[in-house]
Design goal:
Length: about 280
């Protein structure tokens, strides 16, 4: 992977961890955060669309399928709040996602990874997945939770492949970004209002601000990742992107003064070793 692509994807992973931490810190005003996040995504896309070309016909099936599967994944994540601890399900899902991408890209994209690159992807996946064990392995006895996490990981892998194919068919990361985010945001708003009809309470300003800033950061992250799909194998970009979870843990330790257990430290070290191998592999 070229050095500039490697550094940009790492930067995107860090920004992803930051905006997720912001949303978590403002979770007391969830309506305001959701409105601010989606509004910023839609406004940015509408500002870009007049200056970019409409994706070609070949890209639209990937674009639509990606947004549908992405929405399904987030609905499953919402369901995860009700079935088990998010700290168990989310690392399992995000850790298995890159492994699914690596398996699918070999057959669907004809992308062959070197042995060191395969090892790097595997170590990153294991490192992230093992974060779910940081509080003990008892949660793994819940078959429903594990099955849900693995299903989410499969969906993450599928929409990652679809986005990679879509942006390559479009030929422009900015054009694909503007349209896929617009479609996904409108779709997310429709689903949100269907599941949770609007209530009378107003959105708070703090939640709106956190949502807007998070939406801006998320937009930049998505743009970087889509561009990276056109510059390097999708499996490598996908694996490197998921180091955002490692950054999130480090932010929790450094900023929020959370405790860093030996198990979490071993997970982070495993993922970072995998990241290093990805950089030096050819």
């Amino acid at each position: 992977m070229p050095l500039d692509v490697f550094l940009f994807v790492l930067a995107a992973a860090l920004l992803h961890a930051i905006w997720n931490a912001m949303l978590k810190s403002g979770s007391g005003d969830r309506p305001g955060m959701i409105k601010g996040f989606q509004a910023s995504q839609i406004v940015l896309s509408l500002c870009l669309i007049p200056f970019v070309e409409v994706p070609p016909d070949a890209a639209w099936p990937y674009l639509i399928a990606s947004t549908l599967i992405s929405t399904a994944m987030w609905l499953m994540l919402n369901r995860a709040y009700q079935t088990s601890e998010l700290s168990l399900i989310y690392p399992l899902a995000r850790g298995t996602g890159p492994l699914v991408v690596a398996l699918l890209s070999a057959s669907l994209l004809d992308e062959t990874l070197s042995r060191p690159a395969q090892l790097g992807v595997l170590l990153i996946g294991l490192g992230i997945t093992s974060l779910a064990l940081a509080r003990g392995a008892a949660g793994l006895r819940d078959g429903r939770a594990v099955a849900l996490a693995l299903a989410m990981g499969g969906l993450i892998g599928i929409y990652t492949i679809l986005d990679g194919l879509g942006v390559r068919a479009t030929g422009s990361a900015v054009s694909y970004l503007a349209w896929v985010v617009l479609v996904a945001s409108l779709q997310a708003i429709a689903v949100m209002y269907w599941l949770h009809p609007p209530r009378s309470e107003p959105a708070g300003r703090s939640g709106m601000r956190a949502g807007i800033v998070s939406g801006l950061l998320a937009y930049v992250c998505s743009g970087i990742i889509l561009w990276a799909y056109t510059q390097a194998p999708i499996a490598l970009v996908s694996a490197l992107r998921e180091t955002s979870i490692v950054f999130a843990v480090l932010i929790g330790v450094i900023v929020l003064k959370e405790r860093l257990s030996l198990a979490r430290l071993a997970s982070i070290a495993t993922a970072l070793i995998g990241t290093t191998i990805l950089k030096v592999s050819r």
